[in-house]
Specification:
Blueprint: E1 11-17, E2 20-25, E3 31-36, H1 42-53, H2 56-61, H3 79-84, E4 99-106, E5 109-117, E6 123-129, E7 132-133, E8 140-143, E9 148-150, E10 160-163, H4 170-182, H5 186-197, E11 201-207, E12 216-221, E13 228-229, H6 235-249, E14 254-257, H7 269-283, E15 286-290, H8 294-305, E16 312-320, E17 323-329, H9 331-340
Helix pairs in contact: 4-5, 4-6, 5-6, 5-7, 6-7, 7-8
Length: 345
């Protein structure tokens, strides 16, 4: 958070946002997993957090952060995005009721983002605290079909990591690994975490072999005579390599993961959760992830039981009388539900 101490988000409240007329999720923990049937708004939760804590450059990439769009990282925020993504942020755009996202980081600390449509069709994001505006005029972004303009920077901005379904570019991962290797104990910590996923891993190297144009990361595995480029390892392994590198060097405060089980073998989920939970605790990163998988949430629950403290909550989104609500399961509730065979996905 710009100019502020790092504080954990304790609750999230949405109004007229996406498919929610109103939703409150509390209490939030250091590690949070959102479950529920299709079209219950799990991805919308991640988008709300992204909006609340994002800066101008990050907001340009939001339409494609978790969804398929026509925009690309080199050409973000197209006119198609304005019509299909930004205008869809409102539960009911016709009423002109603004959408709002509010996060609390303590009893007397609240951070609010309101999204309004102007008479000329532009959209504006205003950022306020509990007492009103943070500045006069308030920090805001104006969104049109061709651009996002910042009038004042977002005072609530947090560094965050988004684990995308798309793999990172291998040269970016190589530079991240180089930073990890140069940090005290970083390489050893990364190797230990990755060996939980594949015990055959012996070492990692940042190298540019003859005949190649860019340095990459090469992994040596027991039983193989030659090291493999990280691009030639399995998608799940390279995805976790990239995530763990980012968590170790980014100084991020929040990690957003949509459908965490995608591309990952279900039997490795306990080791994956152990790696994420270990780094989240050591690097002080609050985790928000979604899943459709019962195996995934069981792995998260069992992993967190084995940690020094159970800093985990499952939030199940469900429809009750046509309205979406969040039911938060703590350790005791989740244990009873799983032992009773109740559906918690």
């Amino acid at each position: 958070m710009a100019g502020c101490e790092t504080l954990m988000i304790t609750s999230l409240k949405l109004e007229n946002f996406r498919i929610f007329t109103g939703l409150e999720v509390a209490p939030l923990k250091p590690v949070n997993l959102f479950a529920g049937a299709n079209n219950t708004g799990k991805t919308c939760i991640l988008e709300a957090l992204y909006l609340l804590f994002g800066e101008q450059a990050q907001l340009q990439l939001l339409p494609s952060a978790f969804r398929s769009t026509l925009s690309t990282p080199s050409q973000p925020n197209t006119s198609d995005d304005f019509a299909t993504f930004w205008e869809a942020l409102f539960y009911d755009r016709q009423t002109q009721v603004p959408a709002s996202i509010e996060a609390k980081t303590g009893p007397d600390k609240a951070q609010l983002c309101r999204v309004r449509t102007l008479p000329d069709g532009r959209m504006v994001l205003f950022y306020r605290d509990r007492e009103g505006t943070v500045n006069a005029p308030p920090p805001s972004f104006t969104i049109t079909s061709s651009s996002i303009a910042a009038h004042l920077p977002n005072p609530f901005a947090k560094k965050f990591i988004v684990l995308s379904t798309r793999l990172e570019h291998p040269t970016r991962d190589a530079e991240l690994y180089n930073q990890v290797a140069l940090s005290e104990g970083g390489e050893e910590k990364l190797l230990q975490l990755l060996r939980e996923i594949d015990p055959r891993l012996q070492r990692l190297r940042y190298a540019k072999p003859p005949g190649t144009s860019q340095p990459l990361v090469y992994a040596s595995f027991a039983g193989l005579k030659r090291a493999l480029s990280m691009t030639q390892t399995g998608q799940g392994f390279s995805k976790l390599f990239s995530l763990f590198c980012q968590m170790l060097v980014s100084k991020a405060e929040v990690l957003l993961i949509d459908e965490i089980e995608n591309g990952l073998y279900y039997e490795t989920m306990p080791q994956i959760w152990k790696g994420i939970a270990t780094l989240a605790a050591s690097e002080k990163i609050q985790v928000f992830a979604t899943t459709h998988s019962r195996e995934c949430l069981i792995a998260a629950h069992e992993t967190m039981k084995a940690m020094p403290s159970y800093d985990f909550a499952l939030h199940r989104l469900q429809r009750v009388h046509g309205r979406l609500e969040a039911v938060t399961h703590d350790q005791g509730m989740l244990e009873v539900a799983l032992n009773s065979g109740l559906e918690v996905r």
